[in-house]
């Protein structure tokens, strides 16, 4: 069966060309580049004779209807959106790779007995709006989004309705499709394990829980030249010493606890004014919720020690702090098929969040990772070799074949 094809690489390039430049990929949900990406996928699906559906959130579903039990659905897919200045493979590889696996199977074996479904989820990253996994949460009937706005004050619903309207083509259905019997997500590892151990495939046991905070530390804005050093309440100095202390504490709580301050805003952010206020994000992750709880208690008590003025700590309710166990049988089955294909595997937990953590709440779900060169992701340097990308598609193909033919 023809497994390796340059179609995969050229399809990735086609969609990345809409949204890429030297500072990375920007395919934020409902943006023009995101619309182009979903439109391109719809065109490929229609050209391949697939049944195409778009739901109210802009998630695209491409179905090859089963010849015998069309209501039995086996799904694969990932997310179309990227982080800000992101990479070429996070999310998109699972969409285009899933399309490739299904196309290869139909070309080699004809129509499947059960329906094969490719899903391109509208949004997973939470990079434009303060909500994550909105596409898979809508499809899994887990939660819907209301009254949130992006940094420019544009409402989620406004952006959503305008963008989804651009996905309506003749022959494209609208509505919310039924849930599948299983879901498999093909994804880059986004970490160093596979590439360091020279292994080809990662099979995912679980996905970490994430707890994300927004912390605001108030100081006293004042003149940079006339205010004696001993009389200052510099919010940025307070925040930076707190952040350093929290990083050290995180390591003492657990070496597997990740602690990241990715966003930091200084007010008024002017060279000759002592910062009066600092707001920063804290992203913590661990496979045990108790560790996240322990860190949160510490975070709150450490802030009490430094705050000289009112402070605030808010938890992002959209992020899933519950660690997720993925389906063990599907993992074991994929491990057997990987060995049959002569692929080397490693079995481990994912430090990145994925749509699979939502899908696993409603259907048996598993993930297939391929190596990320230097373990880099969420950056323009994100890269995987064509051979590894094709190996992931080959394993996905084997898994889908056994479930639907
Ligand atoms: O942040 C994450 O782990 C995911 O890429 N959204
Ligand atoms: Mn992803
Ligand atoms: Mn990501
Ligand atoms: Mn993710």
TrEMBL record:
Binding-site residues for allantoate, renumbered to this chain: 212, 272, 285
Q: Which residues bind Zn(2+) 2?
A: 90, 125, 378
The protein's matches in InterPro entries, at most eight in alphabetical order, are given as: Amidase_Cbmase (IPR010158), Bact_exopeptidase_dim_dom (IPR036264), Peptidase_M20 (IPR002933), Peptidase_M20_dimer (IPR011650)
Q: Where does the chain bind Zn(2+) 1?
A: 79, 90, 187
Q: Does this entry carry the keyword Protease?
A: no
What CDD domains has UniProt attached to this entry?
A: M20_bAS
Residues covered by the Peptidase M20 dimerisation domain: 209-307
The note on the cofactor says: Binds 2 Zn(2+) ions per subunit.
Q: Name one GO molecular function term.
A: hydrolase activity, acting on carbon-nitrogen (but not peptide) bonds, in linear amidines
* Obligatory cofactor(s): Zn(2+)
List the protein's name. Amidase, hydantoinase/carbamoylase family
Q: Which organism is it from?
A: Lentilactobacillus parafarraginis F0439
């Amino acid at each position: 069966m023809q497994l390796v094809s340059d179609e995969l690489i050229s399809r990735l390039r086609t969609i990345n060309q809409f949204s890429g430049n030297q500072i990375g990929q920007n395919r934020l949900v409902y943006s023009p580049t995101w619309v182009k990406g979903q439109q391109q996928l719809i065109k490929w699906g229609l050209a391949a004779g697939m049944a195409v559906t778009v739901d109210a959130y802009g998630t695209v579903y491409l179905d090859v209807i089963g010849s015998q039990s069309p209501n039995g659905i086996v799904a694969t897919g990932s997310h179309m959106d990227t982080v800000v200045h992101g990479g070429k493979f996070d999310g998109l590889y699972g969409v285009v790779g899933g399309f490739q696996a299904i196309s290869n199977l139909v070309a080699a074996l004809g129509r499947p007995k059960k329906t094969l479904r490719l899903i391109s989820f509208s949004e997973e990253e939470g990079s434009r709006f303060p909500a994550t996994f909105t596409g898979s949460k809508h499809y899994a009937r887990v939660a819907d989004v209301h009254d949130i706005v992006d940094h420019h004050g544009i409402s989620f619903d406004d952006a959503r309705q305008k963008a989804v309207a651009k996905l309506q083509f003749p022959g494209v259905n609208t509505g919310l499709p039924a849930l599948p019997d299983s879901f498999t997500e093909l994804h880059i590892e986004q970490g160093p394990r596979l590439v360091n151990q020279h292994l080809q495939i990662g099979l995912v046991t679980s996905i970490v829980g994430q707890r994300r905070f927004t912390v605001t530390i108030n100081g006293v804005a004042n003149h940079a030249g006339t205010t004696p050093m001993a009389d200052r309440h510099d919010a940025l100095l307070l925040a930076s010493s707190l952040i350093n202390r929290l990083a050290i504490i995180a390591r003492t709580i657990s070496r597997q606890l990740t602690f990241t301050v990715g966003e930091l805003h200084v007010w008024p952010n002017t060279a000759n004014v002592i910062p009066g206020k600092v707001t920063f994000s804290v992203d913590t992750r661990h496979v045990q919720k108790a560790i996240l709880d322990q860190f949160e208690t510490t975070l709150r008590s450490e802030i009490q020690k430094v705050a000289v003025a009112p402070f605030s700590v808010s938890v992002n309710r959209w992020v899933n702090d519950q660690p997720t166990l993925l389906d063990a049988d599907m993992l074991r089955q994929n491990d057997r098929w990987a060995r049959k294909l002569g692929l080397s595997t490693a079995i481990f937990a994912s430090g990145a969040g994925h749509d699979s953590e939502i899908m696993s709440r409603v259907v048996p779900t598993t993930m297939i990772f391929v190596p990320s060169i230097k373990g880099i992701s969420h950056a323009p340097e994100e890269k995987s070799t064509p051979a590894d990308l094709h190996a992931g598609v080959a394993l996905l193909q084997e898994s889908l074949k056994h479930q639907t033919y």
